[in-house]
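Protocol step 4 of 6: record predicted structures for both targets in the notebook before any analysis. Target 1:
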Amino acid sequence: MHKFFNYLWKTLLGSLVFVVVLIAGSMLLELIGLHAPPLPSGADAETASMIFIAGTPLLVLSLVLLADGLMGWWSARWMILALFLWVGYGINSVVEGYLFTNISAVATIEGAAFTILSLLLPSFVTGALVVSLIRSGGWPPLFWEQLQKAEARHRSWSWLFRLILGVILYPAVYWLFGIIIEPLVRDFYASGVYELTTPGPLELIVGQLGRGLLFLGISLPVILMWQRNRSSLMLRLGLALFLVSGGYAMTTAYWMGWQLRVIHTVEILAGSMVYAAILSLLFAFPDRRI
């Protein structure tokens, strides 16, 4: 119970900081001429803002879950968490939104740029706060030392094979669960409701491989600097990937039908847990016992 409340107040404080910095950063972007894109069709500005703020703890929780298991100096842990949030939520949301929606926030260059840049400062400030609140135990190793240890465990060809697998297995997992839910969501995409669209085969393949590269890139530093056992890594990394890659978005996209949101939430959760397990088996140190 003590750990729960410890997580809770740190998550809520991080959420407040994230929202305040996001608002300030968005105002700064407006001043330099980069304007916020219009809201999706059916979304009300006041309601969307309230739900966004209420859901922000889900984003910060992803950092708290990971920070509690990371070792390393403050600067390394800060960069790992900040990039995890910014790339996993900000850049990934634009890529996924571009593939599957016509929403202005991702469908235009200006909208995509505003979305990505507006989340940059909040991600790094919130990451710094979380790292400061949750300290690493023991003598912190350098990131490069951990990277060298990891490289020594496998030959070059083995590393190349594992990295390729780490990228291509993301779309494989995505398509597996996508096939399972396809009969349940087909009509939503075919009708174009909620500004949904279906990309062409080539666009889909390239886009999902790109997302696989993004998620591998933000997950590997977490895996290298993880100080707990592998099962803990699978669980926490899976939950963190779920929260930034779609769990938060599905929770706050109130203008979409609840059926579609529930189906995609379950799909994203299952896919994230499986992908985290795959990455942990491919790259995690097997001798962590903390």
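Target 2:
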Amino acid sequence: MTVRTRFEPSPSGSIHVGTALVASFNWYLARKHGGRFVLRVADTDASRVVPEGLRSVVEDLRWLGLTWDEGPEVGGPHEPYFQSQRGDLYRAAAARLVEQGQAYRCYCTPEELEAMRERARAAKRPPRYEGRCRDLGEAERAAFEAEGRSSVIRFRVPEGSTTVEDLVRGEVTFAHAELQDFVILRADGSALYQLAVSYDDMEMEITHVIRGEDIFASTPNQVLLMRAMGAERTPSYGHVPLIVGPDRRPLGKRHGDTAIAEFRDHGFLPEVILNYLATLNWSVGDGSREKFSVEELIQAFDPSGVTRNPSAFDYAKLEAWNGDGIRALAAEDLCERLVPYLAAEGIDVTPFDPRLRAIVPHIHERMRRLNEAAEQIRFLFQEVEPDEKALGQLTPETVPLLRDATVVAEAVDRWVTEALTGALMTWADGSGISRKKALQPIRAAITGRLVSPPLFESMEVLGRERSLARLHGAVERASAGAKDIAEG
């Protein structure tokens, strides 16, 4: 048997980290067994479809590396992979169920359905459909249609029970008496989720479905539907606990970033995201370590290792892991990954720019997120205005220091870190103040910031001409401030 898993997002924008967790588990399972990972778009609910929503989903999955074997932009033997384009298939399936007596037309009005719910509430029972239209005769159906009533199609839940072997929870039995005859086709002929997902899982030969526990209660409905439609076997299901915030409430915007696009924009590494998400709800390996490569996650994945208790998302821990991940990158790889983040901040540079290659080793250890690099190294690629703290070091009081430092720097023969360090450190030690106080105005002049890559390495990468020009400019700026004070 070929393992076939699927991911079925709604095209409503960037996927949530919890959704990404589910997608990754299905992807690991397919990859581990040499199977197929299917991307299917759940777009029958127009209210959840947003412009560019599918593009966001596709970008998120590709950024995470969760490539699909069948689906949009790839094709496959079960096209189309958009539920909105499969309506005729769903309507035909619903009609067959009606013909077989396994579904029926329901003519109940919204008012009548609300009255049923009111009766249930009054009796302190769960609201449910009372089965009024379950066994209508021809004359009754004709009368309702003569009134102009519209009808939906409901699945006729049989007596008995359904047992499934959940990959996470183990064996679970659902008593049919606790279910209700559920709608599978709306009055306008559009399929509801239960029919669409069941038909597609059957027709696309899906063997395993790993999904959030919020859908757990729908499992018997889907198993019953597939059996009624003639499925020889139904998928093996595994239900994963939802991710919660530190307050143990479902993870939401109040906890910070939750969408994959936000983590991407803020400079997180996709492999770190996948690693961290995996460890939230899955005991990987023997528990002796937490850090794994994507290939290790694939080889180790076993749904039986998924925990049943929800785990709290710890943003600080993820950020720390991300810093570790950045430090583990080769310099060439880091340069390539930084380019889009630099471009987003107006710094046009290629991964092979010698200035980028030269400075990356000096910021490698300082970064937690890729989007932090732009402000640290902008001074190499653009003329920068000193920020407020840097301006505090370019004052009339620092003019003598800046002039002396400029003279010392101009006398350096070889513009390399070692020579600059030797000359300027010797000067700083003889300045009568601490090294930090002596060198801070130079840092402010060179980088425009007081927090920057190492000063002398920065001066080497910036080059003699530009470094000296900035020192002279700083002297002029500070001197002008002194003149203004004198004239004032």
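Step 5 preliminary note on target 2. The mean pLDDT is 93. Residues 154 and 183 are 4 Å apart (CA to CA).
Proceed to step 6 after PI sign-off.
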